[in-house]
Amino acid sequence: MQVYRLGPKRFAPDLEGIGAKKFGGRWNHVDTACIYASANKSLSMLEYSAHLSLAIFKPDLVFTTYEVNGKDFLQLDVKDLPKNWNNIPALKSTMDIATDHFKNKPDSLGLIVPSIIIPDEFNYLINPLSSKFSSVKVVSVIDHAFDIRVIS
User: Fold this and answer.
1) Phi, psi of 140 (to 5 degrees)
2) Which stretches does DSSP call E strand in the chain?
3) Which DSSP category does 55 fall into?
4) Is the pTM of this model over 0.70?
5) Is the pLDDT of residue 55 over 60?
6) For residues 30 and 49, which has the higher predicted lDDT (pLDDT)?
């Protein structure tokens, strides 16, 4: 199956989860490598837009498409998550989820989690340190002309 990430061109080749490791994210703490992707391109654009301001907008965006084996992911539904899982900023208990999963289940390629923007659509948290990570392939990297009306 294919999953998608929208981001600056310079980060497209990242298969190490460097950004999430350096800064943490909703589902992981700092020092936990993670590649955030979405089930479809439109959700990946919404997720990217939620963290964007015109002051820091960079026009060199690309969609990176990954091929992953969906059977190697554990899916979590809203009912499986801590209360207030969608708080902004993210709670420690939410950040513990991928951090603990990646540490305790190295054979799992990652997690499928609901988006806080559209909870019945899903994001993929890919563990680059998984024993199954060699199965992840970058299928394509395609330039994307971002329509700034999305954030203006």
Assistant:
1) -160, 155
2) 2-8, 35-38, 61-67, 73-75, 110-114, 122-126, 137-144
3) G
4) yes
5) no
6) 30
